[in-house]
């Protein structure tokens, strides 16, 4: 898979996680006590879900930065190659 298609896949994952207001959504886990009817929230699981979403955002950001840096390196190499080729033509 090319670097750009990987970036597109990761960008799509981020968009699926986030809604139109740029908010992260996670499920609310809870159980209801049969005797009292009180909800008991599983905050540990919700915190784990949130941490996973944050890790994914960080990974996506890093992948975009890496892709950008690779692109700039490619441009620089293309320019150096063009300069060397031009010097060779001018030398002859």
Description:
This protein has one domain (23-91). The protein has two helices and two strands. The protein has helices at residues 3-17, 43-91; strands at 30-32, 39-41. A two-stranded antiparallel sheet has the order 1-2. A hairpin with a 6-residue loop joins strand 1 (30-32) and strand 2 (39-41). Helix 1 runs antiparallel to helix 2 (43-91). The chain starts with a helix and ends with a helix.
In short:
The protein has 92 residues and is mainly alpha-helical. It has helices at 3-17, 43-91; strands at 30-32, 39-41.
Task: Determine the N-to-C terminus distance.
Answer: 41 Å
Strand content is: 5-15%
pLDDT < 50 runs, ≥5 residues: none
Count of distinct strands = 2
Mean pLDDT: 81
Choose one word for the global shape: rod-shaped
Q: Give the number of domains.
A: 1
Helix content: 55-70%
The main pleated sheet reads as: 2 strands, antiparallel
How many helical stretches?
A: 2
Pairing-aware structural class of the strands and helices? mainly alpha
